[in-house]
């Protein structure tokens, strides 16, 4: 596990960017500045980075009234100020306007990618002449790694673009899906093109340790810094595989409000003929609203939602959380197929009842941030 970066190390990354001028040089003469940032589904401590970005902007002569923050929600639900304070800190919320991206309105088309995705972007962002993004790089099943241009597509895109990206492009990309598979990945290529079309000027991408601290930072030209970040991330997040387990206990710390992601690594750990998967997560706010993928009724939801009545009969699913809710597993199965428990003793009893003679178990510290690599 890596040590957290110091403030001086964060500042050094901003002042010595990859593939472009230092931020304060880019900012000189700017009239309006947009800082777009990843949302509550990502562990990025945006405020820690943003305060140093603001210092660089001020050094370039930019004043507070020229700056606004936009939460790059994609098709996720709007955040209230309690959530935004946790992402940005009190000082930023108090002194700068902070907006939620609305994927249904106030977007303008500025181009089309080679895959045919219509790049319709947030108007407030487009009205600014300096555009900065803050996010983080971590494994992602569809794009190999998140971060980079995902802040644009789907981050501040219209629902038409997001839907096309997650249907047409995703279907074409089937053979390249998988955690860490970013090379040759059409979805990754698509959002990287969106960055160029959308004219993002400067991107900051964090790498995280298991506590969610920033342990490495890549900043600069959005395309160049992202590729360098992925080259680092592919080793940083890699974990030797553990297979053939009777029990997989998988923590969803990094993306607790998208805990279904932890199921990807869990399924690769277990014996399919009989096993228990225990998801561990605490998200008082519940699972993030997703207008494309989640349910909005017992049998229906967004355009990409698929009702799943049953999971594999041979696998028992357990969710261990202090905040159980009956819609939290709609990502992957009807909640009636899941046993929700609120104490560790309950988890141990379920396991011992199923395997009275013992068995083989694996504990994954963060199934939303790690990936198996042989």
Question: Please, could you describe this protein's structure?
Answer:
With 374 residues, the protein is of the alpha/beta class. It folds into two domains: 7-236, Rossmann fold, CATH 3.40.50; 239-372, LarA, C-terminal domain (2-enoyl-CoA Hydratase, Chain A, domain 1, Alpha-Beta Complex), CATH 3.90.226. The protein is 28% helix and 21% strand. It contains eleven helices and 17 strands. Strands 3-2-1-6-9-10 form a six-stranded mixed sheet, sandwiched between helices. Strand 7 and strand 8 (144-145) form a beta hairpin. Helix 1 packs across helix 3 (46-59). It is globular and about 70 Å long.
Short description:
The chain is of the alpha/beta class and 374 residues long. It is built from eleven helices and 17 strands.
Lateral arrangement of strands in the main beta sheet: 3-2-1-6-9-10
Q: Determine the strand fraction and express it as a percent band.
A: 15-25%
What name does the CATH topology of the largest domain carry? Rossmann fold
Q: How far apart are the termini?
A: 19 Å
Number of domains: 2
Order of helices and strands: HHEHEHHEEEHEEEHHEEHEEHEEEHEE
Q: State the CATH class of the largest domain.
A: Alpha Beta
How are the SSEs placed, and which strands pair?
Blueprint: H1 7-15, H2 23-27, E1 33-38, H3 46-59, E2 67-72, H4 81-88, H5 90-95, E3 98-100, E4 107-112, E5 118-122, H6 123-126, E6 130-136, E7 139-140, E8 144-145, H7 159-172, H8 186-197, E9 202-208, E10 214-220, H9 222-236, E11 238-239, E12 247-251, H10 262-267, E13 275-280, E14 315-320, E15 338-341, H11 344-354, E16 361-364, E17 371-372
Parallel strand pairs: 1-2, 1-6, 2-3, 6-9, 11-17, 12-13, 12-16, 13-14, 14-15
Antiparallel strand pairs: 4-5, 7-8, 9-10
Helix pairs in contact: 1-3
